[in-house]
Amino acid sequence: MNVLSTEIQGYAANSSMIRKMFEAGIELKKHYGADQVYDFSLGNPDLPPPAAVKKAILDFGRSANKPFAIGYMPNAGYPETRAALAKKISEEQQMETPAANLVVTCGAAGGLNAFFRAVLEPGDEVMCPSPYFVEYGFYVGNFGGKLVPVPTKLPSFALDVPAMEKAITAKTRAVLVNSPNNPTGQIYSATEIKALAAALKRQSRKHGRPIYLVSDEPYRFLNFDGSEIPSIFARYDASVVIGSFSKSLSLAGERIGYIAVCPKFKGAAELVGGLTLTNRILGFVNAPAIAQKILQSCLDSEVDVGVYAKRRDLMAKVLDDAGIAYTLPRGAFYFFPKSPTADERIFVEALLKERVLAVPGRGFGLPGYFRLAFCADAAVILNSAASFKRAVAAVSGCQPAATKTCKKCRPAKKA
Question: What's the mean pLDDT when you consider all of the chain?
């Protein structure tokens, strides 16, 4: 009996390893206890929301007895929410961006789906640097598009702009970048973005239609080393910025985000109109009302980035001591280390036997690597150290006690 479509059957068979590992972790925690399982599978922020969020919720609760307090609003969002977001986007993008250029969405994922529904024809291509967030292929495929990954430069994960330009075809409709990046933690420099913008301008003229530059920025606030996160709007007119507050305000379950269209884009009004329509007809209708109310007074608040910075340093030490090579993430809360085995699934399985939950890199478009989400308590990171060492020893054929002396297992230099 064909319960599902052929496409969804295929998706289900190859569904996200992130969720599979997360669910495996739930079972392990039931069996061994939560403190004996080291879960780095899911980017689920564990820090409580800032105090301003609690105050905003309480303030809303006191006014929730009014008519239509949680009723429908314009599909693009409350005007006051859009106005508050416009001020923030203007500062981040270093360009005055009117509220009319924003649509409030059901998280960044909802924004990406609304955008692709608005601009893609069947067979259109969306290019992205690889490795990339695992859901991108699904979002593009939802509307008949094809995701075209282009490898980044290893080991730094920097953009390979010449390779990206070479991969552009008449079917290329958009280029999707994510900085700070999931899964690598890389931040693309102003030089890289400027070069990419120049390439897109050349290729847009060549093919006779704008190639959109889409910047997915839910981790913009998670910048550990003071690196510049360059303005997309200042460098390319046919651009949109998509973001959310899942991480910065620890509101992942509330599903609140936005799409902002560059004010210099000549088709901005038409695009915003299309995005407002697709936001509705995809079944989102509008972003959650309560979350929109929260944003109006909380946009200048965020969780303590210093906590994540300390966890990054702890995770780096654990990997160093286990002899696992990595490039230090500059943002977001992920490491994307190189596996000690060519097939990273073997090492991820070895980690699982040690009750460490990681995600194979092939799901992100780069076999031979694996992802660790360090949005976990410092104690979880520290207590995982012995498990990492045993897993490395298991796949290398060494004894655990040999990790300090064995040439194959001694700590590798950071890439």
Answer: 92
Q: What residues does CATH 3.90.1150.10 cover in the chain?
A: 6-49+304-404
Q: Which fold has domain 6-49+304-404?
A: Aspartate Aminotransferase, domain 1 (3.90.1150)
For 105-114, 316-325, 380-389, 400-409, which range has the lowest pLDDT when averaged over its residues?
400-409
Report helix, strand or coil for 153: strand
Neighbours of 356 (CB within 10 A): 25
Q: Which residues of 130-140 are buried (b: 16+ CB within 10 A; e: fewer)?
A: bbbbbebbebb
Rounded to the nearest angstrom, the gap between the alpha carbon of residue 229 and the centroid of all alpha carbons in its chain is 15
Per-residue pLDDT at 13: 61
For residue 400, the SS3 value is helix
For residue 340, cis peptide bond before it (omega within 30 degrees of 0): no
**What confidence tens digit (pLDDT) does each residue in 344-362 have?**
999 999 999 999 999 999 9
Residue 397 pLDDT: 79
Helix, strand or coil for residue 53? Answer: helix
CATH code 3.40.640.10 region(s) in the chain: 72-298
Q: What is the pTM of this model?
A: 0.91
Tell me the DSSP string of 214-280: EEE-TTTT-BSS------STTT-SSEEEEEESTTTSS-GGG--EEEEE-TT-TTHHHHHHHHHHHHH
Residue 66 confidence (pLDDT)? 84
Cβ count within 10 A of residue 191: 12
For position 404, what pLDDT does the model report? 46
Angle between helices 344-353 and 17-32 (to 10 degrees): 20
- Residue 8: is its pLDDT beyond 90? no
Fold classified for 72-298: Aspartate Aminotransferase; domain 2 (3.40.640)
Query: Which residues, other chains included, contact 328 with Cβ-Cβ below 8 Å and sequence gap of 6+?
Result: 185, 312, 316, 414
Mean pLDDT for 164-184 is 98
